[in-house]
Amino acid sequence: MALDHVETLECTVCGATYDPDQIIYTCPEHDGVAGILEVVYDYDVIHDRFDAPLDGDIRSQWKYQAFLPVDTEATPVALNEGGTDLLDTPRLGAELGVDINVKNDGRNPTGCFKDRATSVAVTKARHAGQDVVTCASTGNAAASLAGYAARAGLDCRIFVPESAPEGKLVQPRVYGADVLAVAGSYDEAYDLSMDVTDSYGWYNRNAAINPFQIEGKRTVGHELAEQTQDSIPDWVVFSMGDGCTIAGCWKGLREFAELGYVDDTPKMLGVQPEGASAIHDAFHGHDEVDDVADTLADAVAVGRPRNTLKACRALAESGGTALTVTDDDILAAETLLGRAEGIYAEPAGAAPIAGIRRAREQGIISRDESVVAVVTGIGLKDTAGAERAVGDVIRIEPTLDDVTNQYGTAKKERRGRS
Ligand SMILES: *Cc1c(COP(=O)(O)O)cnc(C)c1O
Ligand SMILES: [Zn+2]
Q1: Which residues, in sequence order, are CB contacts of 368 under 8 Å at separation 6+?
Q2: Alpha-carbon distance 231 to 107, whole Å?
Q3: Where is the Tryptophan synthase beta chain-like PALP domain (predicted)?
Q4: Residue-range domains of the chain with CATH
Q5: Nearest protein Cα to ligand 1, atom 2
Q6: Does the global pTM surpass 0.90?
């Protein structure tokens, strides 16, 4: 059988197991709490099938196909996701006072890390003969799903809060999706998408409850393990919304270490905005819950994260921690990343940089440690946000005089000297 490397789906709450061949989202045994399922693999089968050399040459995430929970007969729905660069970022490091590399996942096909997961989900949906895919999203998952649905020839209907940045509402429509802009928060859009999935039977990509979503996100961990095998970083830093991304990466890092492909694992640092800090609060044992999200980092503006459990396990198992940053810190990080290294991130993508600065100040990360920040999304979808952090354009008439006013008299005679 061709899904024989997937043993079972196991409930993270009660341990009940489910058949990986059926379409099931969460364990139905738990009222109120989501019984999130974990995909359990037969690593003997995977290890036998995985024959790609760990030589740093990563064209796309499908290098790790043996690890992905798709039928070996299924043709991947792909746009060249993953295989992103791990960049040296010395000027950024000097600014933050730490050895840092940036994994630039904004380079994915729709401009966001989520393509890793979407590619897997849409491959599974098409292979299962589904015609319609859906999800709720703060914007990026919607754009990502719409792109891959178009690639696969499936219909796509997505639910987003109407406040999502314009670019994230336009992009999925260019991909031909129906964009249902909900007059409400992401959390309300999410609940609606779940009701719709129940009544219409559309294939739901919602990351937290589709057990296969996190599995695609593991490939960022596989890539990082491969790219840093000679010098494993002390820390890997992510922003957290629902918590699936950091959990997925951790699972990928952990399994490569357990299989002996690499010697060790990094500690995970999860960063949240002060205004949307539920996972951070749960990790540190704060009981008072504020489930309203208020932050300009729209991609992580999640009031009730759906995967707090898996995210907190990733932080704890790796020996890492969580911290919060302000929106001003995030904007400052966005322009720092652009100015210092030529990387244009959206706020949620820049938040890890703000988190590293905070962690250095608090002594969580020490000067002699090494850090990888994963930039999860490109900034171009949300120029309005960035506009608050950059200076104005310099308006001039089309005359040399106006340039002279700006930069002083041109010194012609210096030409050719240097
Ligand atoms: C979705 C998203 C995140 C957070 O991922 P979660 O799985 O929700 O924690 C971070 N950055 C960007 C750019 C995203 O789109
Ligand atoms: Zn259960």
Answers
A1: none
A2: 24
A3: 78-377
A4: 86-111+213-387 (3.40.50.1100)
A5: 299
A6: yes
Is 70 exceeded by the pLDDT of residue 207?
Answer: no
- Taking alpha carbons only, the member of 132, 241, 139 closest to residue 182 is 139
301 alpha carbon to ligand 1 midpoint, in Å?
9
Q: In this structure, what DSSP letter does residue 416 have? A: T
Q: How far is CA 161 from CA 138, 180, 278, 371, in A?
A: 6, 8, 19, 34
Return d(Cα 27, Cα 13) in angstroms, integer.
9
Model confidence at 99: pLDDT above 90: yes
Coil/strand/helix, residue 25: coil
CA 170 to chain centre: 20
3-state SS class at 221: helix
Q: pLDDT tens digit string along 321-368?
A: 999 999 999 999 999 999 999 999 999 999 999 999 999 999 999 999
What is the CB < 6 Å shell around ligand 1?
112-114, 140, 207, 239-245, 299-300, 346, 348-349, 376-377
Q: Quick one: DSSP state of residue 389? A: T
